[in-house]
Design brief:
71% helix, 12 helices, Tetracycline Repressor, domain 2, 2 domains, mainly alpha, Arc Repressor Mutant, subunit A
Amino acid sequence: MPRTDCKARMPKPKAAAPRDAEKTRARILRAARNEFMRHGYSGARIERISRTGRSSDRMIYYYFGSKEALYLDVLEGVYAELGAAEAELDLDTRHPVAALSELVTFTWHYYLAHPEFVALLSNENLMRGRHIAKSATVKQLSRPVLGILGTILAEGVRQKLFCRGLEVNRVYLTLAALGYFYLSNRYTLSSFLGTELMHPNQCEAWLAEIQRVMLASVAA
């Protein structure tokens, strides 16, 4: 009986469809953002990211190289998205009080709509900024809000509505702190104060308080 070559009779495998690199990478990043937000850098697991992102550990390392590089990509992404949102602000700086009020509202609502931003920054601060210090991208990102705020303050001074000597970075720190502290400590503060700070009514009341403090701090 003549020998048959089984391999020769097997159909050749079809060529794999080209992988959509951008979509795969985006899915991994979305899954990684959620994983790092929930578990921090140390608690995050690559296998969970690959499962949630409908990918594989091998593909994650192929696209990003390491867990730290993936984490940095996530951090750079949240900073870039904030900068892009700030760049789209269209404030009438001819009316500095109203413009500052709108900027305060934008910042607070952005924090509320992007809990991953607060969570990721809180986690990175616990690690003393060990990873973000390595990112050349974050250092090069523009912060449109500082230019916008500077214009608002200068116009307010010119119209004698705001006091002289205001330092843009310090005013921004006040604004960021009022929102960030509230959200990053919401669980313990809710327990301590006996009220649910994330209830919509409480969030709107805190926005009004941020507005009051910010406007009072710059008023002439």
